[in-house]
Amino acid sequence: MSGTALRSPAARALRDAFLSALVALGIFGVMVGLRTDPGARSLVLSWHPVPVAVAVAIVFFGRLALSGWRIARPAGTAAPRRLAEGMTHAGRYVAPVFLILALTLPLYAGRYYLDLGILVLTYVMLGWGLNIVVGLAGLLDLGYVAFYAVGAYTFAIAATTFGLGFWTCLPLAGLFAAIFGVLLGFPVLRLRGDYLAIVTLAFGEIVRVVILNWVSLTGGPNGISGIPRPTLFGLTFLADGGPGSFADYFGIEPNITQRVIFLFYVILAMALLTNWVSLRLRRLPLGRAWEALREDEVACRSLGINVTVTKLTAFSIGATFGGFAGAFFATRQAFISPESFTFIESAIVLAIVVLGGLGSQLGVALAALVMIGGSEMLRGIIILGVDLVEYRMLLFGIALVVVMVLRPRGLVSGRTPSVSLGRPREISAELVAEGRG
Amino acid sequence: MADILSVESLTMRFGGLLAVDSLSFAVRAGEITAVIGPNGAGKTTVFNCITGFYRPTSGRLALTHAGGDGFELQTIPGHNIARRARVARTFQNIRLFAGMTALENLMVAQHNRLMPNVASGLLAVFGLGGYRPIQHAAIEKAKLWLDAIGLMARADDPAGALPYGAQRRLEIARAMCIDPVLLCLDEPAAGLNPRESEELSDLLLRIRGGQVGGGCSILLIEHDMGVVMRISDHVVVLDHGEKISDGTPAEVRNDPHVIAAYLGEGDEDEGHEASAA
Ligand SMILES: Nc1ncnc2c1ncn2[C@@H]1O[C@H](COP(=O)(O)OP(=O)(O)O)[C@@H](O)[C@H]1O
Ligand SMILES: [Mg+2]
């Protein structure tokens, strides 16, 4: 490859851009260019060259601009680092602002935004739960959705067969998810890195396949419907009011929005509980041991820390919150089926954690807001005849790549010491380990 | 004086390679025992057997606490060697928690005292189980060690950002925070300048004497003969996994086997030191 080294930077940049455009053509040509539309008797394949051309052109010029930027400033690491420090600094003020915005959302937002808020908060909660496993303990779990599913089905089955309510079942769902966490953890936590990732991925699929096939218990592909809604100290939120309902008790008009607002506050409270427990655990020996494990497992062992038990606690506490979120998902939808628990859910939650910055609570919340809320915002934005929401996965991917290139540690990296003699100072991301399994 | 650790016919085989060959020696309580030998002699392997990272092919490692409790280290699972038998170690390549502060490193070392079991760890989330006084005591202990190694001012700095010499000392302090009866140090003076080596020697003598911490026996792997000759009470020399000499520093220094082993290796520094007498 001596030829490449001799070429001028401009020629090399052009060649790079051309190759990128070629790859883009291969990808977008199929993903964007070919579309199936329902025809008279069957699906009809249609060819859309314009969006493909636009996408390829964006990649070509984007790559060219990136190369130009690299040539212009070869030591291009200063800016992202300053950005990181700024972000960490701003974090102290951003978090309370977001909390207040969330608490008052029902005052200024309509039904659509409340529903979206519920969706975002569900992912925030899942992200915070998985953050315990991946961000703190450094264990790469690709099957987190399994615990979400276990929580959802535990609640759904308990509610529909024994007539138990949401609040009774919530701890049950968490407990079952935790038990599954331990069951999975025992055999697999000896594995490290890639092996752990693969086995957890398989576990996620196994749980889904079992749910799909155990028809007598789970209803198989038909799922479970008629799952009860949560109540507020026994008051229901039925659309038609009636005795014992919230509207009846307070003597107001029954309104479906009341239930949505209630659900919103339920998931907000559950997410905040997850956050509180994680933050608190971080400052306690257990959380500190998780982080130490992420930093250096061998050293932990030499200090007498039981590595297996410590990993198991991280796994099962993360699973518990996944189970809680699952129970909420079931009660909100009133219907669940295996389709809601595919691998892509695990991938999205993991992407939120990685994008947000491993171990960072604020980063995870922001990433969930951008990825889930942002992608919903794309709905209805039509460019060149395509609805952008159809390409949300593509945009996720691009966002991930961009963040990983600019800020390999996620939006908010670095960590705050869990204990300090003086005023705690932020530890820069370069020193913090990501964990190897 | 009583033996705290007795190594009997320790053998460690890696495939066809005999890294430690039927090695026997004793570590006496309250003493500093040095293990020296050329590179590849099997010193680190002996440490890894004692601290449970390797399971010996054969042999016996008997540890006896001052109270009379006995432990067969070759049968105890990994972390319990530190936790129950109270054998602490440092690593030839420093293994600190680089992204955690000096203070946090010392707190992690006190994990088992801070959190005797998982239930107590979870209760602490809700402020139950009397966690506060234990934490207070742990911080005090950490401060004691930070003071002893001269890192009080840098308590809140990440370990990975400390100078090399400070990292070496911090790793020793961290090992001491588990309250060991036996401290195993793998080349603690490697990479230190003469002044730092001097300070390290003083620190180790104070640890042995109990002037800082509760007093403990030390097993030391070291190449710096200045340090070895100054502080050790007893020296064991290994070559090719076998013991070639065992005695006081003066005896070992004059042992022709040792001189031959070191000269044979052709390492100028150590050759000079060993043959200087
Ligand atoms: N895990 C291992 N697998 C295979 N060989 C090993 C292993 N650990 C050490 N050895 C070999 O054992 C011998 C002794 O190594 P070591 O104990 O590290 O020597 P020293 O610490 O005295 O320099 C060397 O030949 C080394 O290659
Ligand atoms: Mg060695």
What's the short story on this structure?
With 437 residues, chain A is mostly helical. Chain A has helices spanning 2-6, 9-31, 49-72, 78-103, 105-108, 111-136, 145-162, 166-188, 193-213, 215-218, 246-250, 256-282, 285-295, 297-302, 307-333, 343-356, 361-377, 392-406; strands at 34-38, 43-47, 224-225, 335-336, 382-383, 386-387. A two-stranded antiparallel sheet of chain A has the order 1-2. In chain A, strands 3-4 form a two-stranded antiparallel ribbon.
Q: Could you describe the 3D structure shown?
A:
The complex is a heterodimer of chains A (437) and B (277). With 437 residues, chain A is mainly α. Chain A has 2 domains: 2-72, no CATH class; 82-406, Orthogonal Bundle (ABC transporter involved in vitamin B12 uptake, BtuC). In chain A, 68% of the residues lie in helices and 4% in strands. In chain A, helix 6 (111-136) crosses helix 16, helix 7 (145-162) runs parallel beside helix 9 and helix 12 (256-282) packs across helix 13 (285-295). The longest helix of chain A is centred in the middle third of the chain and has 27 residues, at 256-282. Chain A is globular, with a radius of gyration of 24 Å. With 277 residues, chain B is an alpha/beta fold. Chain B folds into 2 domains: 1-86 and 179-277, Rossmann fold (3-Layer(aba) Sandwich); 96-178, no CATH class. In chain B, 39% of the residues lie in helices and 23% in strands. Chain B has helices at residues 43-50, 78-83, 102-109, 111-114, 118-123, 131-148, 164-176, 194-209, 225-231, 249-253, 256-265, 268-275; strands at 3-14, 17-28, 32-36, 58-64, 70-72, 87-89, 182-186, 217-221, 234-239, 242-247. Chain B has a 6-stranded mixed beta sheet, with helices on both faces. A 4-stranded antiparallel beta sheet of chain B has the order 2-1-4-5, covered by helices on one side. In chain B, helix 3 (102-109) crosses helix 6 (131-148), helix 6 (131-148) packs across helix 7 (164-176) and helix 11 (256-265) packs antiparallel against helix 12. The longest helix of chain B has 18 residues, at 131-148. The radius of gyration of chain B is 19 Å and the shape is globular. Chains A and B meet through helix 12, helix 13, helix 14 and helix 15 of A and helix 2, helix 3, helix 4, helix 5 and helix 6 of B. Bound molecules: adenosine-5'-diphosphate and magnesium ion.
